Amino acid sequence: MRLTIFLLSALFILPMAGYGYIDLGSGSYIIQLIIAGFVGFSLSLKIFWKKIKGRFSKKAKPDGTADAG
Amino acid sequence: MPDEVRKLPSSFRDPSGFLFEREGTLYRQVNQVYKENYNLLLSSGLYKALTDRGLLVHHEETDIPPPDPQRAYKIIKPQVIPFVSHPYEWCFSELKEAALATLKIQKTALSFGMSLKDASAFNIQFIDTKPVLIDTLSFENLQLKPWVAYRQFCQHFLNPLLLVAYKDFGLNQLSRVFIDGVPMSLASRLLPFRTKLRPGVASHVHLHALSQKYFSSRKVRARERQVRLVSLAGIVESLESLVRKLDFRLKKTEWANYYAEMNYSPEGFEAKKKIVEEFLEIIKPNTVWDLGANTGVFSRLASRRGSKTVAFDVDFVAVEMDYRDCLKNSEKNLLPLVMDLTNPSPAIGWENQERKSLLERGPTEAAMALALLHHLAIGNNLPFSKIAEFLSRLCRWLMIEFVPKTDSQVQRLLATRDDIFDRYTKSDFETEFSRSFLFVRVAPIEGTDRILYLMKNRSSI
Fold first, then answer.
1. What whole-number distance in Å separates Cα of residue B38 and Cα of residue B169?
2. Which residues are CB-neighbours of A5 under 8 A, at least 6 positions away?
3. Where are the domains of chain B?
4. Mean of the per-residue pLDDT values for chain B?
5. Is the pTM of the predicted complex or chain greater than 0.80?
6. Rg, C-alpha atoms of chain B
């Protein structure tokens, strides 16, 4: 989380510099983990939201005609 | 290795196998080390799913002797690609379609328990204007780790697309300089500030570049981090939604309005079309290169009669218009490409052999050079002898239009130049071109001063 905050704040402050021989793989690996975390989190939220919505619409239509989404 | 077998320098990096040619036919050796993945590709149903949707080239297994028997598992014969193009020759929509195809392939692979191990734009080629993956050995058994080809996808596809969409279409040429795609740091610096406010660009480009910088001098703990399948699919979807939203607005350029501003009467234009059709009927070429094709009006005369046609033009916008029209009409046999004939694509990569130059990808059976000559001769100071020499190296048949000095298009070119072109005459043109070509037909275009020639190369290339 600290890393994410660092990267987000640095985004607006630091200018990018070019670099030559060094390994760029680690950075690509880490950013993917962070994005994967966000994507996973937002997807879980979506699923959670769908469940809540589903529950309410079921209550609204007790005859069982509620749609899944 | 037998004499007649030639390994192709485009696939030497991959330990999974390599391409080779034997008696003019292209094959791929699959190495033992790739055996499990190759079998999984077929047994999982992924191969069928992708080839059915035209996203992967189909192949057949053959029993010809392998060039490297010690390491060989199988020899396969892949579907033939009519013309191998390079990403820096694509217009915006071609690059975008290729990017979306790569993501679609990765999404499908994930659902079959496999993943792309590379996402190089050079692995995508066009068949009938549709992008298709040509590297059958690009798949590996899915592991719940970050996508190994993520950075390559960003460098090969995302960065040039963003740079063209947000800055300038000339920046697609960066892919020619950076053979492994536009570096993250460079793309991040070149993109306008407002892109930092778009979550997709901010995360996949700006933060990505920053993360590379931050960790370049730090040790990343080697312990493997697991990524859930849903997150892996989420990354692909996030890239897909970002790419899908990117757009390139057509602006008026030098050439894109060419037909609207040219000096042909409708009758003259039709007469020219009729002559080109007659020439095509005489030569019945399998392959055609339309040089200076603009939006491809004349290219379609060839492609629609079944010739595999490449429509080259220097103007990015004209090529974009041409390709959009191809997509709209599901055009067959036609590939529009960006190409500056005064500086055609060179051979690049390792030992200058990895990616072929334009001339190395020829010769074509027939070339069309319609309304091109005056741009080369007057616009670029190229003598007729040099133009004839160049064209004789790339085609067996040539359909070329001579545009006299009296023509208004030539007068336009001369308006801003000193007329130092004494030798720009019909007789000089014929003298120089007859050194390399035999004249088969000479057809003046009705209603104009222009002349169309059908020529045959004197040497058998």
1. 39
2. none
3. 5-78, 87-245, 258-457
4. 93
5. yes
6. 24
Q: Tens digits of per-residue pLDDT, A4-15?
A: 555 555 555 544
**Domain B258-457 falls under CATH 3.40.140.10:** no
Mutant choice from A8, A31, A34, A41 vs B, greatest count of B C-beta within 10 A: A31
What's the pLDDT score for residue B264? 72
Q: In what order do the strands lie in the sheet with B72-78?
A: B5-7, B17-22, B25-31, B72-78, B59-62
Say if the Cβ atoms of A11 and B232 lie within 8 Å: no
The per-residue pLDDT for A2 is 54
**Exposed e or buried b per residue across B334-354, where buried means at least 16 C-beta atoms within 10 angstroms of its C-beta:** bbbbbbebeebbebbbeeeeb
Which residues of chain A make contact with B218, given a CB cutoff of 8 A?
Answer: 26
φ, ψ (nearest 5 deg) of residue B422 = -60, -30
From chain A, pick out residues whose CB is under 8 angstroms from the CB of B194: none
| Cβ of residue B207 closer than 8 Å to a chain A Cβ | yes
Which pLDDT band, with edges at 50, 70 and 90, does A53 fall under?
confident
Distance in angstroms (rounded) separating the CA atoms of residues B94 and B78 = 23
Q: State how far the Cα of B20 lies from the Cα of B398, in Å rounded to an integer.
A: 31
Give kind and range of the element (H or E) at residue B327. Answer: helix B316-328
Is residue B79 within 8 angstroms of chain A, CB to CB?
no
Q: Is B199 on the interface with A (CB under 8 A)?
A: no
Enumerate residues 6+ apart whose C-beta is below 8 A from B308.
B82, B83, B286, B287, B288, B333
For B175-195, write each residue's pLDDT tens digit.
Answer: 999 999 999 999 999 999 999
Q: Is the pLDDT higher at B251 or at B384?
A: B384
Strand partners, B29: B18, B75
Q: Say which amino acid occupies B359.
A: L
Nearest to A22 among B216, B228, B232 (CB): B216
Token pair of B28 as six digits: 């791929």
